[in-house]
Sequence to fold (196 residues):
Amino acid sequence: MVDVAGKTGTARIINENGRGYSNKHMASFVGYFPANKPAYSVIIVINEPSAGDIYGAGVAAPVFRDIANKVYSSHLRIQPELIAQEKRTLPNILNGNPKRIETFLEDLDIPYEKIDKKAELVSAEIKDDKIILSPLTLKKGLVPDFRNMGAREAMLLATKMGLNISIEGYGKVYKQSIKPGTRIHNKLNQKLFLKP
Fold:
């Protein structure tokens, strides 16, 4: 549950003719959260509540609470108890497309450094509490190193390099039938072995 700060409000609605007030009400709650380090602000306005309660505290505040709890539980960046962990374990990242890898790292707020901004493929390595993305060197006409790639990246690369490829297993490539650096020719069939 997240600490919030806010203010309730209850107002009578003016008559349709513009003179005086009707017996109808508007309930509201405006607030922000987390209270000690605000990241979100929300205003809830309920026009003519009909469940019996007409006050902001009883009608609009519970809606605000539910929204705040939902947002808080799904946005890890604003949870101080998670941010305050002494040391988080960085994930092992498969080699592959730098844009996909960077999007993943940014979404999870994982620190990284990209060595070559123009690299088509990168290898990911954990170093000094961040992920280092180094370019994977591809040599035209030579079998690339598929190890530590997912099936999708391996298939795309094999097609680009003109290799016939077959895959056994699932997960990431841990072994390949033809040694990296071998010259590619028409009848070369590469088999990749994957495991979780």
Notes: The chain has four helices and nine strands. The helical segments are 56-74, 80-83, 98-107, 151-161.
